[in-house]
Each structure stands twice: as structure tokens, then as C-alpha cells.
Specification:
The chain has 184 residues and is mainly alpha-helical. Helices cover 54% and strands 7% of the residues. It is built from 11 helices and 3 strands; from the N terminus they run ααααβααββααααα. Helix 10 crosses helix 11.
């Protein structure tokens, strides 16, 4: 049974947003037949056809943990797209242009000195200057019990957030938030 132009368009439109099982059911075809058609259409791997990066790929390029990128998505409004590849595997994709727009507003979260030139094209002009600034980024580093005790002790002794921040190698904001959580 041949695929009609309408069927082919349905495959192109829903590949990645619906599982193969769902698409096959809509077309009244078997999953195997659908997989063969997708392969023949050159769309066998949705991930490579999106033109976007997965959260893991972006993390590897920026030399940060994947969980850091996921935190940017969930807590700091980094735009993303979820897609389903093959049967049920979900991937979190990030459009490179959307990433650069977000990164410009959140420069303090990224150590650009670790980013190789033109590794994420098209690279905006401001990144060259940011690359020369060495940053100590300890975002999302887990707190130890010992560090929590030290923070409270130093804070109660009258040390400033800047002093505590310098001693622990963390940002002032993370020190402030930790003190607030520990004293509530």
C-alpha cells in the first residue's frame, strides 16, 4: 500500500512530537513499515534532522554538567523544545539562536573561557570579549553539611556575604540563599 502525499506530510509534521506507535496507528500501518518509510525519506533519526542541540550536547560544548543545563531550562527560562525520537525516547532540544539570546542576558552563569571559538555558530560578537573573562562558576554545586555549618557560624560571627563567598568560593547570591534557607 503506497503512502499518499497527505500521509507523508503527516509523518513529517508529527515525527518527533508523537511516538512512532501513535503515527503508525493514525496511518493504519505497522511500526516496522513506518520505520522503513521514515528511513527511506531520510528522516530516520529525528535528532539529527532538527538542527538543534540536545541539553547533553550543549553541556558538553560548554564543559558543564547536563544537570546545569537542565537547571537553566527549569529555573532560569532557557528556551527548549521536547521531541520524541524513535518509539518513546524524549530529548530536550535547544535552538542555538535562542540559546545565544538567553546567554546574553545570563552571561554570569556561563564561563565562556571554556568555549572554543565558533563551536556554537553563529557566535555573537560579544562572546569574544566574554571569553577573555575567567569566571569561577560553582553554580549548582551541592552543599556539604560542613559548609552549611561554617556558613551559619561565620554569618553569626558577623562576617559579610562577600567574605563568606570568598572563603567558600561561591557566589554572594548562593551564600545569601543558603543562609535564608538555613535560618527559616
Amino acid at each position: 500500500m503506497k503512502y499518499s502525499p497527505k500521509d507523508i506530510q503527516l509523518i513529517k509534521d508529527q515525527l518527533g512530537s508523537q511516538s512512532l506507535t501513535t503515527i503508525a496507528r493514525k496511518l493504519n500501518r505497522s511500526i516496522t513499515a513506518l520505520e522503513v518509510k521514515i528511513t527511506r525519506m531520510g528522516l530516520s533519526h529525528t535528532k539529527s534532522c532538527t538542527g538543534m542541540l540536545t541539553a547533553g550536547e550543549l553541556a558538553k560544548i560548554l564543559k558543564v554538567d547536563r544537570n546545569t543545563v537542565m537547571q537553566w531550562i527549569h529555573n532560569h527560562e532557557l528556551g527548549y523544545h521536547q521531541r520524541i525520537t524513535r518509539n518513546k525516547k524524549r530529548f530536550t532540544f535547544i535552538n542555538i539562536d535562542e540559546f545565544w539570546t538567553w546567554a546574553e542576558k545570563n552571561r554570569h552563569k556561563i564561563d565562556f573561557s571554556k568555549l572554543e571559538p565558533d563551536e556554537l555558530p553563529p557566535e555573537p560578537g560579544w562572546v569574544t570579549k566574554e571569553r577573555t573573562i575567567a569566571r569561577q562558576t560553582t553554580n549548582y554545586k551541592a552543599w556539604t553539611t560542613h559548609e552549611e555549618k561554617q556558613v551559619l557560624e561565620w554569618y553569626c560571627c558577623g562576617k559579610t556575604l562577600s567574605e563568606i563567598s570568598e572563603m567558600l568560593g561561591r557566589t554572594r547570591e548562593s551564600i545569601r540563599k543558603k543562609i535564608k534557607r538555613l535560618t527559616e
